[in-house]
Amino acid sequence: MSRAVLPVCLLLLVALGRAGAGSEPDQDQGAEEHPHPPGKGLGHTPWSYEDRDRWSEDYKDCDGTMQSPININMANTIFSPHLRAIQLSGYSLPASERLKLRNNGHTVALELPQSLAITGGYAQQYRAVQLHLHWGATTGPGSEHTINGHRFAAEIHVVHYNTKYDSFKEAMVHPDGLAVLGAFLEMGPRDNPYYQEILEHMHQIQREGEEVWVPGFNIAGLLPANLKYYYQYNGSLTTPPCYQTVKWTVFNQSMLISRDQMLKLITSLRNDDGKPLQNNYRHMQGLHGRRVLASFQTTFFSPKQLPAGSDSSAAPEEHSSSSFQAGDVLAVLFGVLFAVTALAFLLYIYKQRSQNARLDSPTKSKVIYTAATTENTA
After folding, report:
1. Any idea of the CA torsion for 308, 303, 285, 34, to the nearest 10 degrees?
2. Domains plus CATH for the chain?
């Protein structure tokens, strides 16, 4: 990011970061964007995940009707053919580019240069500001969003602001100001080299406020390779001040990191109270009539679909992580058709054999034969 915007973003990140222990990073405080000064909500009182149910006492928007995160329910998903693949620009950074990694007391946040942007899939362009993570503890998972009630091990958020505004701070208060890309993390069989670029430095920022410069790398590697399949809805920052200005994109494909990497993520950092920074996620928020859109069909029978000409960006719908695609549906239909045809053929063969069996069997005479009598003629 430019030197002019960097100071402002840093202050916002630090503030959001404190809340980040399970919600958004300091930069996008509230929805994965980042905001205020450390531990404070844009001039308001300090907050923490332990008092998340009382955030609305100091931050009015936290009690709004367009809050995040939400549960994405497959049965209520609306397929929108207007949603195109997300396109990223400038995400592959050379090792010579240094990035600031920080423990803001709420999460681990990586500052991103201004050259990173979303250039496709949205009606407007959005510039990256930072990314951060949300996780649970050794006792349970900690993603913010859930799919059909399932909570994943962790979740990454990449925060962007609309390029029509001069800065993140200005954009975050406008309805079309922010865009956050989210992806779920699960445990896999081997280390993820992209996440290792962050996790290998966690021991250097154990305490709140500590930061370290890390070499640039391909940031796109932290997100799914296929950016065509996702859910989208209008929501908020997931930490104070909870501004309801975020267009959320949650990818259907999850990312895999090893068990050792997951343990490093959930056990390395401390919050502003010196306690283990864990379970830094916000509880589910109500939909209140909002729609969750899906870029692909997520239901097998009678999937909902937006009518032609409708504005898919206006109100996305809820959608689950179902893996049924058009090809899968066709395969199932052909399978059913084949089964029905085979059954009909077998019934035909059975009837033919039954008829032949009746024709081949000898006809029993209705005449009753009696033994001949021998007469004595002598």
Report:
1. -60
2. 6-323 (3.10.200.10)
